[in-house]
Amino acid sequence: MAYKIRTLEKSEYTVLEDFLYEAIFIPEGVEPPSKDIIKRPELQVYVENFGTRKGDFALCAECDGRIVGAVWTRIMDDYCHIDDDTPSFAISLYKEYRGQGIGTELMMKILEVLKNAGFSRASLAVQKANYAVKMYRKVGFKIVDENEEEYIMVWEC
């Protein structure tokens, strides 16, 4: 499948809400939540006024002129907050584009962006049952903490 990874333009930041919803891990056999779940304050922190804070970076995957995936970072008080100098991650792809290496490439490219911007680490939270745990390990994230349902993972360059 032909695709390209590029910077998400400011005029396209609204797609982050779609990908925020897509990023919600839904275990097999569980009914997906309503799309308005992303309006909750604990989720809006990922997208609200994106592009205005330190650590706000976003890339997208484009296939046939359509944005099919996005990865973005931001320093925020979210589930995996480490400190006020460490960006947190969000990443997702539309279902039909998963499992093809696009997410891995998005992750590697955004880690390069962070490194070039002077950041030495980044964090993310992921459900233990999420197949993406393997991909996060592959690109260099390590588990630093966990609770009953999630791992907190950190990448350091």
Automatic annotation (TrEMBL):
One of its GO terms (molecular function) is acyltransferase activity, transferring groups other than amino-acyl groups. It comes from the Bacteria. PROSITE patterns: GNAT (PS51186). The keyword Transferase applies. Pfam families: Acetyltransf_1 (PF00583). Keywords: Transferase. CDD domains: NAT_SF. InterPro entries: Acyl_CoA_acyltransferase, GNAT_dom, MshD_Acetyltransferase. Residues 3-157 form the N-acetyltransferase domain. This is Acetyltransferase. It comes from Ruminococcus albus SY3.
